[in-house]
Amino acid sequence: IDLDVQRIASRNLGRDDRVVSDNAKEARYPFLAANVVRLLSGTPLDRKMDMRYPRGVGDKLLLRLLAHRLGLVNASTRPKRAIQFGARTAKMESGQTKGQDSL
Known about the structure:
mainly alpha, 4% strand, single chain, 5 helices
């Protein structure tokens, strides 16, 4: 996990920033602020997640509780998705055609 945290800016965020800036937008990553990462890196795993709960509840538990407290009730219970799957662009036209096949 430490290795992933150390290289997230060069691997994931570089790609994401290029995609977002190509659309004349600027991304903000409040959960990746140095003080937040430092706090969460030092927090025991059992306080950050509880996999006895179903998907969309027990994973990312602290972030979900924060989102709920901030009034983002619907977002706080949505299952996590990787960005490339979140937009559901891989499946089109009633879920039968994959994006690369529809060109």
